[in-house]
Amino acid sequence: MRIIARFKKDDSVRLVSHLDVQRLFQRAFRRADLPVAYSNGFNPHQQLSFATALTVGATSSAEWLDIKMDKDISADEFTERVNAALPKGFRIAEAACAEDKYPSLSAVMAAAEYAIVLRFAEAVNAEDISNAIEKLLSSSIIVLKKTKAGMKNVDIRPMVYKMELTGTHGAECSLALAGRLDAAGGLNADLLLGALKGILGCDYTYSLHREAIYSVDGAFMPKAPEGYTVQA
Amino acid sequence: MIKDKLNTFLDKVEKPARYVGGELNSTEKTDAQVRFALCFPDVYEIGMSHLGSRILYNVLNSREDTICERAYAPWPDMEKQMRENGVPAYSLENFRPLKKFDIVGFSLLYEMCYTNILTMLELADIPLRADQRGEDIPLVVCGGPCACNPEPIAPFIDLFMIGDGEELIGELVDVYKECKVKGVSRKETLLAMAEIKGVYVPAFYSPVYDDTGAFVSMDKIESHAPDMIERRVVKDLDAAQFLGKPIVPYLSIVHDRVAIELFRGCTRGCRFCQAGFIYRPVRERKRETLLKQADEILSCTGYDEVSLFSLSSGDYSEIHQLVPEIINSYRDKRVSISLPSLRIDAFLKEDMEQMQSVRKAGLTFAPEAGTQRLRDVINKGVTEEDLLRNMKDAFESGWTGVKLYFMLGLPTETDEDLLGIADLARKVSAVYYSVPKEKRGKGLRITVSVSSFVPKPFTPFQWAPQNTKEEIIRKQHLLKDALRGLRGVEYAYHAPDVSVLEAVMARGDRRIADVIENAYRKGARFDSWDEHFKLEIWDEAFAEAKVDPAYYANRDRSLDEALPWEHVDMLVTKDYLKREYHNALEETCTRDCRKGCNGCFGGKCADYCKI
What we know:
The complex is a heterodimer. Chain A contains five helices and eleven strands. By secondary structure, chain A is of the alpha+beta class. Chain A has two domains: about 1-100, Alpha-Beta Plaits, CATH 3.30.70.580; about 110-215, Pseudouridine synthase (2-Layer Sandwich). In chain A, strands 1, 2, 3, 4, 5, 8, 9, 10 and 11 form a nine-stranded mixed beta sheet that branches. In chain A, strands 6-7 form a two-stranded antiparallel sheet. Helix content of chain B is about 35%, strand content about 15%. The model of chain B has no long low-confidence stretch (mean pLDDT about 95).
């Protein structure tokens, strides 16, 4: 059987890299003494996979993992035992049993949603930000992206499903962002926020929080809302 | 405050997880009567791999009156950010500036980390020199193997702890607490601490040099201080505190596994090996104790590998029971086992097969020298026959990768000895090809790793000259040519500059401190890392301090010369070291002390040695 679970990563552990997250879950499962299934061979490893990686420095309330078990275990017991074993800053929020034939999480994921806080040097005007976003979204967004073949100019506009201002508080403003995230690729929020800087003409730092990962089927990860598809 | 500042730049540095703590099993305390900062003068991944400081972390934090927090040397990118943003050196547990601790302690594992101590002190806003520290500044203390010659860094340090720390560090905290309650001065505190066996306060002693600049003696300038500082020994290692619930790092560290310490000390007496002399006598932990510790640590960390740690794990008296017991207990949990420091004459084929049944790790062997003559000089009681037989067993069991460690520049070494290394590699290669194809694995890899010999204090070679840099380079190339064209053989060696510097630091006197500070001021950092080591800086630092490195590294010392570390008593007597040096030059081996006492303590401390 498999367990598919959503976990949270809070601010205290935002600098823990994806590779380290994989390792810490493996160790947490061992501490929790769960009947985890291992691969065969000289170097057996846990049959554990993640929907996707989270960029270092970001926090999240919706990371998804998939772990195969040798013996059945209830989702509640899994959650309880893993949470007792996890280091502070990580927490399983929900878990469910999945059948072995269910596809991998990366195969069904479709989109992701982020809450972003921009921090400017001084107080900002909401209207200026809204206008800049509108302008950014009104045409193609060409960014320089690192690909296997080297640096390449790509248009990331079709991968942006939603980008809006949700509030301003002094020198801070918050944005809601949704974009493509599937096995073939996804919206890179860092590149998009870099492009927004160009339009605004002033510098800011930001924090990134993943709110949700959506899927095509809604079986475990929530189903992607209407309109969350790549724009022609 | 520190945390807020860190948040503004941590995403700009390499591996930011080095600098934020929060790992599983780190102490949850926020404060206590005595604050101890346990510092490691190298980067997090190295420091977190050091067993000794992790034991001390547990010893200190299991005291109710003490909080122990960690700090590691910031990588140069982090140091730059800390300076630019005004962030002082701080502890990982509570982001507390090091200056707010009572005691700031450093582990000294190798000489090339000394400049990093200065980085951490300066970032902490603690004056570099002990004589410039005021009443409110933490005590700066050191311990670890390099403390056996404390002199090169003595001016920077308030107090050294010599020998095993498990008991000593608690006694130090006890005295500190008493002094703190009484409100006595820094000097009185140090005087009280100097009464603890194993404590050395350098300010209470002053070196004397003659007109030629030769070291003459160490004069005591504080009458209450002891004449000799006797090394501390934990007599009953089995009963000593160990790791408790060790921290599980997020980052992948160098030794990322459970380590259990089978024994301390070594009975072999290899004459180049400082650890083999300064950790005597051998003290073993009981098998039951080790199994219990392995079990507890595996279950509270979630690690999947146990390392059986010691100076020569194959010598553990119950090794052939312990290895299968661990393998069998954890087979279902897929825990693998690794044995560092294997001696090629102490291990059996069955053990190797058992290790392989769980996971196949690389094999490393250390013949150290290429000919039997030179192996007799260094008392490495290993024969070519032993090595080749073990190689055959390993290749027949499917191993294909083997690392062979050697030293270059050992006392009395000739070119013939050196070419013996190539000869041995050739024979190992031939052994592989003599194993039938269907029995052996594919793709032979023999790594011949050759380091330059560094003479160390408290070894029989403490009087011996190191080869000059030019001689080391000549020998390295001679060997390179001899190894050329050998199938499956890879040759690994290092530039000699770091070894030469290490030799100066190892047998240096107090005058070397100026060189270290000069180099630090000029930007020397992480000198043990090839990417950071800058020879020009050190050349200038020596010249400005008017110190000739060759005087310390390449000089043949006379046996009756006064040595700058002789106020430290590491228990093995000078007479014994002299006798062993003679035996070396006579190419005479000395027996393993499990086979009979060789009298290295000269009759003292008879109750320490249980063999």
